[in-house]
Write a structure and sequence with these properties.
This protein is of the alpha/beta class. It is built from 16 helices and 10 strands. It has a 6-stranded mixed beta sheet with strand order 7-6-5-8-9-10.
């Protein structure tokens, strides 16, 4: 019996073309050895293409007496194989052919903080950062190592990313005081990286949308809205000259420092929405920094919490959330509705997988009422890079019938979605939705 290929939670290819589902190159060449050492130290017969292919397949299959490659590993290749085996193990025992249980496969790491810390150091040596983040996530999901993150030493050793922040937020209530400062430092690093990536483009996109949403009748030449100007002056077309002589110019206004738009972010904080909560908090802080937009951030499960006062620091917002619990969208929308004072200038963004534990018909009535009053209502199933999660399709269809189609949105697309809502034009819904 052959050993089964190692597999991780995320799968992006079929067959063993990519180790732990982390790389998408075709064929087993997606397995690479350490990039920091000379090839002669990491492979046996590295100059022979056939031998190199066998080496890569050996790393995919995980070894054992019947892996079929006949390729032995040494040096750093063996160390890299050990790091993979500690997490993913082998599907079968190569000696006995006996299927291993999940418990057997987890024995390589166990729950010892020192051994996990050494393993974290190893994978950072052998793999690039993007792969390290996925392996860390697999270790937390597959081996139940979340509790080790309550130790400051472990937090300092991990590679921080959005998923780790979500895990830390879910552990917030159980986190000892000695760990909280370290956890906040980890979360702040991720938040600052996201702000650097997203803030400038978001401000530029929305500033342009705010400018365009304010129409003026005596624009400067470079502010003229030619499409609207031509449409308004078609009756002045002169056929003998083949041109239009406009009597009225319509232009884009310039957003002043006064508040032009109201934005309410209404975020589902159930456990499945962790990445969306992180991104929404960062975007909320960016929007709050724009004087022309009055931003309100509301999170909910079965209760509703308004975190608007903490928007100057997204880390405070994140630690003010409480991931997990039930969902009452109707109650959350009732609160948001009560905060609307200028419906025609308000954008409400509901970020939820739409699994409603409250009153379904009341929820739909509130959405219909807000739209009828002039509110721009946006429904996002997720705000992350992970695509659409599992969601309530019946509720999504009902919202679409009300003119509020539900779709998953990436962080890169979110500024365009908000700009379209501010300008009251069709939303840029991805084709996959």
């Amino acid at each position: 019996m052959t050993t089964g290929p190692r597999t991780a939670t995320p799968r992006t290819t079929t067959g063993p073309q990519s180790i732990t589902g982390l790389r998408t190159a075709t064929g087993p060449q997606s397995i690479t050895g350490p990039r920091t050492e000379p090839e002669s130290q990491t492979t046996n017969g590295a100059g022979d293409p056939a031998q190199e292919r066998l080496r890569r397949w050996r790393l995919v299959l995980g070894g054992g007496a019947a892996d079929g490659t006949g390729c032995a590993l040494s040096g750093q290749d063996a160390a890299m194989d050990g790091a993979l085996a500690a997490l993913y193990g082998r599907a079968d025992d190569g000696q006995t052919g006996k299927r291993q249980t999940d418990k057997d496969r987890s024995a390589g790491l166990g729950a010892s903080a020192p051994s996990v810390a050494r393993w974290l150091g190893d994978i950072r040596t052998y793999f690039p950062s993007s792969v390290v983040q996925v392996m860390q996530r697999d270790a937390i999901d597959r081996l139940g190592l979340s509790t080790l993150l309550l130790e400051p030493e472990m937090l300092e050793a991990v590679e921080a990313d959005v998923h780790l922040v979500g895990t830390l937020l879910s552990l917030n209530k159980a986190m000892p005081e000695t760990t909280k400062e370290t956890a906040r430092a980890v979360v702040r690093k991720v938040v600052q990286d996201l702000e650097k990536r997203l803030a400038t483009r978001t401000r530029a996109t929305l500033t342009g949308a705010l400018d365009r949403s304010a129409r003026i009748n005596r624009p400067r030449h470079h502010d003229i809205d030619w499409n609207r100007t031509i449409a308004a002056n078609l009756k002045h077309y002169l056929p003998e000259y083949g041109t239009i002589v406009p009597e009225r110019l319509i232009g884009y206004g310039r957003a002043s420092q006064s508040v032009k738009k109201e934005v309410i972010l209404c975020i589902d904080q159930s456990g499945s929405m962790a990445a969306s909560v992180v991104y929404a908090s960062v975007f909320g802080a960016v929007l709050a920094s724009m004087r022309s937009i009055n931003t309100r951030l509301v999170v909910f499960d079965t209760a509703v919490v308004d975190l608007t006062d903490q928007l100057d620091d997204p880390v405070d917002v994140l630690f003010g959330t409480q991931l997990g619990g039930g969902t009452d969208i109707n109650r959350a929308l009732a609160y948001c509705q009560s905060q609307i004072t200028r419906p025609a200038e308000t954008v409400v963004v509901l970020i939820s997988d739409l699994y409603e534990g409250g009153i379904r018909q009341e929820m739909l009535k509130r959405v219909a009422a807000m739209k009828a009053s002039g509110v721009q209502f946006v429904t996002l199933l997720a705000l992350s890079d992970e695509g659409a999660p599992a969601y309530d399709r019946e509720h999504a269809s009902a919202l679409a019938a009300l003119g509020a189609p539900a779709f998953a949105c990436t962080p890169d697309l979110f500024p365009e979605v908000m700009a379209a809502a501010i300008e009251k034009r069709p939303l840029p819904i991805p084709e996959s939705a």
